[in-house]
Amino acid sequence: MTKNNPFCEITPELEHLSELSAKCSVIDPELYSKYDVKRGLRDINGKGVLVGLTEISDVCSTKIVDGVSQPADGELYYRGYNVKDIIAGIDENSHFGFEECTYLLLFGSLPTKDELKEFTNMLSKYRTLPTSFVRDIIMKAPSRDMMNTLARSVLTLYSYDDRADDISLPNVLRQCLQLISLFPLLSVYGYQAYKHYHDGASLFIHPPKEEYSTAENILHILRADSKFTPLEAKLLDTALILHMEHGGGNNSTFTTHLVSSSGTDTYSAIAASLGSLKGPKHGGANIKVVKMFDDMKKQVKDWSNEDEIADYLTKLLHKEAFDHAGLIYGMGHAVYSLSDPRAVIFRSFVEKLSEEKGYEKEFKLYATVERLAPEIIAKERKIYKGVSPNVDFYSGFAYSMLGLPVELYTPIFAIARISGWSAHRLEEVAHSGKIMRPAYKNVGERKAYVPMEER
Ligand SMILES: CC(C)(COP(=O)(O)OP(=O)(O)OC[C@H]1O[C@@H](n2cnc3c(N)ncnc32)[C@H](O)[C@@H]1OP(=O)(O)O)[C@@H](O)C(=O)NCCC(=O)NCCS
User: Catalytic center at which residues (predicted)?
Assistant: First the structure.
């Protein structure tokens, strides 16, 4: 669509109607306390309303001291294993950490060498799109947003599946494994189509290689010359592990549970989760972080001047800079308080890579923002549990050093998180059966209908 498309115009009538809509959408904040409604389904310490049970992962942000729960450094466990230990334990030369962890999440135990080999063979076998899918679907009307492309492709795969609505466990597992295998192709080919049709770039579609891991295949199909270094593949593999799972309550995984609980098909559930992950308060934050830093680099003349950086951060909170949303992207988390373990792990990798690639000055700027932002947010907002850098703070920077295009940052999150969504969908389908249906209390008045001529 062009910029002047009349279909997208905000007319005075729309402005007027939206004012009416805003006026009747205000709920007195006091009523939330009165009726004990947890805003954002969380209490002020970030603890979510308990809505389900899971064995897939555990997100920990507090510890008990003298019988009292206190904020603590964050920890993340996949099927009982600390992610920090998993990443440290994966063979230094292996780029199949994502596959190993996918097996762990889906089947509950660490795979043996043979099990992992069999599993990766299975994923390779499924990494084939239906005939002409690229030409007929991905190349048609390419969207400028790859998450939109991805969601449309997922919904379209429904029409190619003879058992699309079968929600028996083996069939749902098959669909999930196929989606795990196909997400890199759907995302990267969608990006190639966009670059070709929107920017006139040369079009190339590399088929995936059977012997490559997910991380290696992403780099192979993305780059015109298909070349990448082992360090690049290792970093991307680590990024995928850090993004693949985060409990049942995060917005997109909860969406998987919610939508799956209606008994719908895998494609509908996963497309809904993609829609959730696209949001800038969730997976879309990594793009925002990089764009915010691009803006900061232009506005802040001296990157070593902390006062100048602090002024810019304050302007962000006052909605006077960047996207005027009032947010410092990459900071804060719904659950974590003192630290997000994923950001801590990422930081050490990013620091190493920044030295190798000559990005030390940028890294210093990130480190200064990391230090100043929590204090500035605390001055301007009411903080209950503490704010620290989240996983997205460094992921965008890492991807830019890897030369990955910004358009693919959130899809890479999705390529990782589909493993978590799949594990949760299987858990929901296998054990639940009860449709989710929470309550909203009506706090509006009752009124008698007024005939048209009397209004
Ligand atoms: C993730 C996020 C939505 C969590 O918000 P939350 O659950 O309200 O977090 P907290 O309870 O700790 O926030 C306390 C206050 O600080 C504000 N705050 C938290 N992080 C903030 C940030 N990065 N920038 C500005 N304000 C922030 C919150 O809006 C809240 O103020 P409010 O009650 O007036 O709305 C929020 O931190 C955010 O929007 N961060 C930026 C986007 C981002 O990086 N998302 C990726 C998450 S992995």
Answer: 333, 392
